[in-house]
Amino acid sequence: MDYQHVFNRSMLALLISGIVMGGCAKESSDSAQHQQGQSHSTMSAPEPIAAKKDLPVSDYQLKPQQAEIMISAKEQAHRLVKQRQQLSEANVMASVMPMHSENRHLSSAPINNDKFAAVVQNGNMVAAETPVSTFSIDVDTGSYSTTRSMINQGQLPAKDSVRVEELINYFSYDYPAPSDADAPFNVTTELAPSPYNQDSQLLRIGIKGYDIAAEQLGASNLVLLLDVSGSMSSHDKLPLLKQALLMLSQQLSAQDKVSIVVYAGASGIVLDGVAGNDFTAISHALNQLTAQGGTNGSQGIQLAYQMAQKHFIENGTNRVILATDGDFNLGMTDHQQLVDYVAKHSKSGIGLSTLGFGLGSGNGGYNDHLLEQLSNKANGQYAYIDTLNEARKVLVDQLSATLLTIAHDVKVQVEFNPAVVSEYRLIGYENRLLNRSDFNNDAVDAGEIGAGHSVTALYELRYNDSHNKLVDPLRYSASTVADADVAINTDEVAFLKLRYKAIGGQASQLLTYPISRQQQLNHLQQASEDLRFAAAVAGFGQLLNHNNYVHDTDYAKLIALAESAMGQDSFGYRHEFVQLLKTAKVLSEQTALTVNPTNPY
């Protein structure tokens, strides 16, 4: 294809159309001024458009309208040059070959400014060299909702953008709850063959927090911090936000306090501590909101914390709920400053939860990374709201877990027995990893668990007698285990330790659980539905991230595995996941066709 010829013709056409449009605009302007002059003879003539100093003389000597059109034409021509260069650099052959019937309907992924932090996925660890794995729990679910939204829009997430633990923990599991409130959660473990690799095992760690009915939550002081900037104008942002918060307001009572702070170019107070059951006042305030202006999010956060402190409830729930697309472009734009600010105020008993809206729409771009980090450092939870059903799940069905924290700074540490385990790999939790010494350091922040929350972590293991080990044994090695009795104990696979702080407590408490090889199952189908379903979800996340350690699975196997573990599924979330898997399978096949067409000619 003669790109130079196409470029010259396109530029000439743009210049000619620009001059014609400029003349038409001038004629229309002259006519309008003539009519206005007849009816308003005293009106002053419009100011001429100032010549642009950086234009060549030949441009700004044109009529003002023509000069502006010429600038626009040059900008468009410049874009054509860039597009031509990008096209030739990518794959010229793909652009000139005939489009085949099997991929004629395909289109490139939509271009937007959404921000997702890249995940550096966990590697395979040698138990004899690094026997200890330490991480903070995570109850966020935003990554699952954003992934679902993208797939439903016909686009697979970018490689390394999916936080696998948030996919796993989006779902509830039938873990046994603690029998009394003195123990904030119960822990279970399970061992079964891994679906990802032959001759490897999957260790599931399940944590279940005690649940509290919504009517027993106690008093809540909620400050709704709402983004009403111009970037929130689309239907899946501010309009959906209003409906979601109306759902929340229907769950509140007279003992609760609700304040609404809004921010755009400036911040303001819409409601100042009204009773939670004053639905009329809350709904009226929400319905009056419109989207316009810039996004001074930092100023809004500062005002919201002032309101939360003003109406602070001792021994109650005090929380700021930030609802936004995360497009902060004014005020404190340094995101680390924002994160440090909310982390500081969380120590005073005021948490921050974030609700995201509007992935892939508008010019501002959705900021997944910032919203996840803000909630992470402020004793809160991050959720992405893409539908009313998701709003109901987070703000109605799981309100207790969203609002009430039952344990702070929950850390997990697993020590693998090198006499049994050769290698291990933690699936997910990449941005929640802790140093080994952080486990006993109560000054180190970690995740919170809400009432009724379940948390799941998965490890893939290879035993010493595995024929599928990734790492060769060292020729020169010495035992680093001080206790010989422990070293030869081949019954223990690992030793699990958890630390947490009770509500109001400053010192952490320790729980320990040995994991025995005797609980090892011979076949994956013998495992619980919870392990099998969690394995399917984790496998999905690893495929999306193009994980290098998943060799013996694909979408078809994951679909079959998930369909074998549907459980009760009262709300239909597992059935929805299977449909999502099937759609992702088709999109993945389409992507493969565009990258490697089977019959290019």
* Unreliable stretches: 1-111
Give a quick account of the main beta sheet: strands, pairing sense, barrel closure.
6 strands, mixed
Strand order of the largest sheet: 7-6-5-8-9-10
Overall shape: it is: globular
Please provide a written account of the structure.
It is a single chain. The chain has 601 residues and is of the alpha+beta class. Strands 7-6-5-8-9-10 form a six-stranded mixed β-sheet, sandwiched between helices. Strands 1-12-14-4-3 form a five-stranded antiparallel β-sheet. Helix 6 runs antiparallel to helix 7. The longest helix has 37 residues. It is globular. The N terminus is likely disordered.
Helices and strands in order, then pairings?
Layout: H1 3-39, H2 57-60, H3 64-96, E1 125-126, E2 132-136, H4 142-152, H5 164-168, E3 185-193, E4 201-209, E5 220-227, H6 238-249, E6 257-263, E7 267-275, H7 279-287, H8 297-310, E8 317-324, H9 335-346, E9 351-356, H10 368-377, E10 382-384, H11 388-397, H12 399-403, E11 405-416, E12 421-427, E13 447-450, E14 454-463, H13 484-487, E15 492-502, E16 509-516, H14 529-544, H15 555-563, H16 573-595
Parallel strand pairs: 5-6, 5-8, 8-9, 9-10
Antiparallel strand pairs: 1-12, 2-11, 3-4, 4-14, 6-7, 11-13, 11-15, 12-14, 15-16
Helix pairs in contact: 1-3, 6-7, 6-11, 9-10, 14-15, 15-16
